[in-house]
Amino acid sequence: MIDLSAYTDNPDINLSPGAASDTLVLSMGPQHPSTHGVLRVMLKLDGETVVEAEPELGFLHTGIEKQAENLFWQQAVTVVDRADYLAPLSNSLCYVLAAERLLGIDDVPKRAQVLRVIFAELTRIASHLVWLGTHAIDLGAMSNFFYAFEMRERILRIMEFVTGARMHQSWFRIGGVALDVPKGFLALLDEFIAAFPPRLADLRAILEGNVIMMDRLVGVGKIEAADAIAWGLTGPSLRATGVAYDVRKAFPYSGYDEYDFDVPTHDGGDCYSRFLVRVREMHEAWRIIKQARERFPGGPVTIDDRKIVSPPKTEIQHSMEALIHHFKLVSSGFNVPEGHIYSCVESPRGELGMYVTSAGGNKPWRVRWRPPSFYNLQALKRLAQGNLIADVVAIIGSLDPVFGEVDR
Hints:
With about 400 residues, the chain is of the alpha+beta class. About 45% of the residues lie in helices and about 15% in strands. The radius of gyration is 23 Å and the shape is globular.
């Protein structure tokens, strides 16, 4: 038996005796490469078997909710983007939908809605590709990372071409999108639509039947459907238990009910099932983008309400009324009627919800989030029990948490 007393003065090792004499409490994190962020998990071990796992959160607290409450309604888009830095447009879509419902806006132009769907699904694929590449590295596979990031780079180029930013695009606006797409956007999108299926097929051929992947993932971190619902799991983590809940189908928004797509599920409830669901979701997201491209309409990309959306520069140059609207929007924003609303979207990690309250002023009175990573991560207590300590890495990776939204 190892004499642990020899390590008690070592600053690099955090050891403490467990409740029982034959268990060990080990601190994993908060700086640990496999957690993909600042997360501490207090593990009680019996040998190499996890008896208890207690995640500790809050190391990345950003105060994004409070920041949003101190900005004009439109300005808040820039901070809500930053909570989930892998899916910024999912965050801003949830927020602008909430604000539009409070304002009673139900006539967002069709072109803007199709663009929102295209960019939300591109965001989903890009986020899943980051998960796939890094999850494979966690399990010891390197080449898949380069396959995944080569395809993600194509998406980021489209984002940069249209919005000017690779990350934190802040492109969605209350009433539409910031600007229309530039000439050449559809050609870039067509290139991606043509290139993605064969590359995804390559990744699936390498990983889905891989003996090492299956050995590390099958039967690991298993949870039943009833427990998954009780723990509040959503997204791929819930659908991997056989529950076909998807906000895009259950509560359609931005015209998702007009698209033909399936909700992938699996009944294994383990890490391998979560892996399969996310891989298949990328194909469904590609199907939605392809349909949106085929129906891509013309027309404006914002509502025609100068008290909400700033007039174009050409109008400001010859209209005093337009100049006044522009000045008012920049200097004091616009007021939103008193009320409260819960808005939700299907982000890459599950149901992202925002409970937004207006007191009738030009800033949100309260912006309360329901981040999917926060709820999914709580289930680590349940998922890790009975597994080996080496499997904790695979289980955390299978939940795909982003700590910007966990500690928002």
